[in-house]
């Protein structure tokens, strides 16, 4: 039964980490995966997380099963973070939130749920999008199409193309939108462009699925989450996946959530009952620790304040790194314009490097995604010169 199975290709993002881990060069640099490293090249353990863990250790608790939908305190805190405690959808109990295994887990729950209740829909993702979006929705059984998004000539959004694509989608199509910090391009819509997108989605009768994996890495927690609230206010059926992997530096704890907005409290209760079946038949119920940590931080005012400060510091360091990267490239690769990197938002830069140039960087033990996506958050004051010299060489 197994003899004819072929070798699967490496994952386009996590496969790079595998190659990086296998590289014996002590000066290797991983600009592939979307992980925030501090200026010493370390994944930070946030103080708010350590303090919450200390609080949890002081109240040792047995590790019983969580409810299928996750820790109630976590689901409540996340829902209020995503939609606002005083929003109509929360007040009217029209939103449901279930704990999920990171943002990926939340997307998969949403995809499986939609496949059960809107099986004929097709899915539309941005061109380009996070590599796993296509694979994930296809594995749930959907046909996945692209909509126009990135314009390589301007390094920005091809907004006319995007809007035309939205307007041409069939009613009931599922459109995956990046709420902020577009992955991989770092090119986000303006507030006025979002107005037009929301209008097009509502008018065309599409099902928006907002993916928010980088809240707080763009302009701020509230600013980055604003589009979710604007969509929720329209009253259309809405799905939102969010992740705390990056914003809490809790990658390996797999903490995320799926929220769904229904048209009434009664409909929401029915949706939740069905979503619980999706969870139960996949992994039964989520793990305890990460959810408790995030719920504790979000519900404890001093820790929440600390989290907001620590997240702001990560955001500020990335912005400063963008500036330093552009400045150094200007010196070391004159004739190549990288100014656009300053306009990009979030952890990534869609650098414009070709697949061949990325392969040449790899020969120097610098790892990036084949599409030219580099993780700005993996650069620091110690490795920036090495990265810039290597890029100047391959250019
Ligand atoms: C990324 O895009 O690098 C991150 O979202 C990590 C992942 O799972 O791909």
Automatic annotation (TrEMBL):
<dbReference type="GO" id="GO:0004838">
    <property type="term" value="F:L-tyrosine-2-oxoglutarate transaminase activity"/>
</dbReference>
<dbReference type="Pfam" id="PF00155">
    <property type="entry name" value="Aminotran_1_2"/>
</dbReference>
<dbReference type="InterPro" id="IPR004839">
    <property type="entry name" value="Aminotransferase_I/II_large"/>
</dbReference>
<dbReference type="InterPro" id="IPR015422">
    <property type="entry name" value="PyrdxlP-dep_Trfase_small"/>
</dbReference>
<dbReference type="InterPro" id="IPR000796">
    <property type="entry name" value="Asp_trans"/>
</dbReference>
<comment type="subunit">
    <text>Homodimer.</text>
</comment>
<dbReference type="GO" id="GO:0042802">
    <property type="term" value="F:identical protein binding"/>
</dbReference>
<dbReference type="InterPro" id="IPR015421">
    <property type="entry name" value="PyrdxlP-dep_Trfase_major"/>
</dbReference>
<keyword id="KW-0808">Transferase</keyword>
<feature type="domain" description="Aminotransferase class I/classII large">
    <location>
        <begin position="27"/>
        <end position="391"/>
    </location>
</feature>
<dbReference type="InterPro" id="IPR004838">
    <property type="entry name" value="NHTrfase_class1_PyrdxlP-BS"/>
</dbReference>
<keyword id="KW-0663">Pyridoxal phosphate</keyword>
<dbReference type="GO" id="GO:0030170">
    <property type="term" value="F:pyridoxal phosphate binding"/>
</dbReference>
<keyword id="KW-0032">Aminotransferase</keyword>
<dbReference type="GO" id="GO:0033585">
    <property type="term" value="P:L-phenylalanine biosynthetic process from chorismate via phenylpyruvate"/>
</dbReference>
<protein>
    <recommendedName>
        <fullName>Aminotransferase</fullName>
        <ecNumber>2.6.1.-</ecNumber>
    </recommendedName>
</protein>
<comment type="similarity">
    <text>Belongs to the class-I pyridoxal-phosphate-dependent aminotransferase family.</text>
</comment>
<dbReference type="GO" id="GO:0005829">
    <property type="term" value="C:cytosol"/>
</dbReference>
<dbReference type="InterPro" id="IPR015424">
    <property type="entry name" value="PyrdxlP-dep_Trfase"/>
</dbReference>
